[in-house]
Amino acid sequence: MSYTTQELSLQLPTEEVQDGTINILRFPALGTSLVITRGNLGAHETLRSHFEDQLGKLAKQLKEMKTSPISDTRVGLSGDIEAVELRNQFIKGTEQVYQFQLGVKPAEGRIMSLSYVKPQPMGEAEASHWESIKCSLVLNGAG
After folding, report:
1. Is the pLDDT of residue 142 over 60?
2. Distance CA 14, CA 17 (A)
3. Where are the domains positioned within the chain?
4. Around Cβ 134, how many Cβ atoms within 10 Å?
5. Among candidates 143, 96, 114, 90, which has minimal Cα distance to 24?
6. CA 67-49-55 angle, 5° bins
7. Cys-Cys link to 23, which of 16, 36, 120, 129 (CB 3.0-4.6 A)?
8. Is 84 helix (H, G, I), strand (E, B) or coil?
9. Cα distances (Å, whole numbers) of residue 114 to 68, 108, 143
10. Contact 89, 97 (CB under 8 A)
């Protein structure tokens, strides 16, 4: 199996690999970060049910969690990528966290979550930046 990142490509000796990688991209001018995580969906799990389950677990672990309803949306250059989106805020340790979240299925049985995060409330500049990220999304076919 071939596995490629921005910096390297590998030939893995087996097809039995589960990609649970995390990428964190920082945007110093806005004080934001984009956290991209990958994982597997359960046999009967949908994007929405996955996010609902994760929010339930997080609500038990984090303080003062507030979340918007999960909404179905479409993203990407042509608006052809089905996704779910929500906004939330919470306290993790002593740090206040504000985030916009998006979930997409890059391949059957897989999930990719994009979290746009800032330790202060986000304004128009951050919302515009987040919109441009979502509109630029292209799935490369790798699961």
Report:
1. no
2. 7
3. 19-123
4. 21
5. 114
6. 30
7. 36
8. strand
9. 16, 18, 15
10. yes
What is the C-alpha to C-alpha distance for residues 18 and 35, in angstroms, rounded to an integer? 19
CA dihedral 127, 115, 21, 139 (to 10 degrees): -50
What tens digit of pLDDT does each residue of 40-76 get? Answer: 888 889 999 998 988 888 878 878 889 899 999 999 9
CA distances from 86 to 19, 50, 72, 132 (A): 24, 13, 9, 16
- For the record, the structure tokens of 139 come out as 């799935």
Helix (H, G, I), strand (E, B) or coil at 52: helix
Q: Which CATH number fits domain 19-123: 3.10.450.70, 3.40.50.620, 3.40.1000.10, 3.40.50.720?
A: 3.40.1000.10
